[in-house]
Amino acid sequence: MNQEMKEHVKQALKQGKRLDGRALDEIRPIKIQTGIISTAEGSAKVKFGDAEVLAGVKMALEKPYPDTPEDGVLMVNAELLPLSSPEFEAGPPSIESIETARVIDRGIRESKTIDTKGLCLEKGEKVWSVAVDIVPLNFDGNLIDMGGLAAIAAIKTARYPTLNEDGSVDYHKRSENKLELANVPIPITVCKLGDLFIVDPTEQEEKAVDTRLTITTLDENTICALQKGGDVPLKVEDVQKMVELAFKSAGEIRKILAEVN
Length: 261
Hints:
The protein is of the alpha+beta class. The protein has 5 helices and 12 strands. It has one domain: GHMP Kinase, N-terminal domain (Ribosomal Protein S5, domain 2, 2-Layer Sandwich). The protein has helices spanning 3-14, 95-111, 143-157, 203-208, 236-257, and strands at residues 30-34, 42-48, 51-62, 73-78, 120-122, 126-138, 159-163, 169-178, 186-193, 196-199, 211-218, 222-229. α2 crosses α3. The longest helix has 22 residues, at 236-257.
């Protein structure tokens, strides 16, 4: 973003205005659809305004890692395809895609929402692996929050594949058994521009921010993970303000997610 556009965004925010008309602490209208991918054990499409992200969950029986013979495997991957934005390029994973996957993965792991020991069928031999793939369909900023919400919605509705009598897996049939979720981690990224703070940044706003903090929260305003981005340092009072905004936004999103079955 050129300096003129960056200054334009900041001046508008100083007047309490955003380019799309929202308040500084306002999230774009959210829509969640599940069961989008018939070949996945769970899937969800999340829209924030016109921005769209798709998440799919695949489950498979695998041999556990030697150092955790009683734990199932959880993996989160984010792929940023050029079809969703001219900013993305084909090829090896970019720093942005790696960071997106790791921050979402950390939030899910640290929340302990999935009991990995409950995924074990035979110690040291058979465990369920849960792979979550996140793909933006129409990118317009705030990928971590949208991807994290899509991942949780997909996991929440995922059902195990059917096990045959001989122990093999029938991936064409899903059982009625769902993944048990102990918590619901919601990542909220709060951005700082000068002395101002915003949530749910658009692509243009992200290019203008000085620094950001992704706060993954659980019910009752419990923080389970943090990730800072940007070069500008944060003061203690900055972090406190950002946490307050994250709690507020997470509460709004939880109400929407609660309606997803």
